[in-house]
UniProtKB/TrEMBL annotation:
The keyword Ribosomal protein applies. NCBIfam families: L28 (TIGR00009). It comes from candidate division WOR-3 bacterium. This is Large ribosomal subunit protein bL28. Pfam families: Ribosomal_L28. GO terms for biological process: translation.
Length: 62
């Protein structure tokens, strides 16, 4: 599966680049994912988390 936030499920969105001459090509907006160490009960593991989840405190960093 493509990279996604393992807390909120945020994934890449798609759209178009549009030039001044109105040439249209596909593009992707990737979420800003960081690999962080997270406490999971008594163990720690590394997961992909978006920066909004880190900033809002949805993740307890190890």
């Amino acid at each position: 599966m493509a990279r996604h936030c393992e807390v909120c499920g945020k994934v890449a969105s798609v759209g178009s680049n549009i030039s001044h001459a109105h040439n249209v090509t596909k593009r992707r907006w990737e979420p800003n994912l960081q690999r962080v160490r997270v406490k999971d009960g008594s163990t720690t593991k590394r997961i992909w988390v978006c920066t909004r989840c880190i900033r809002s405190g949805k993740v307890a960093k190890a």
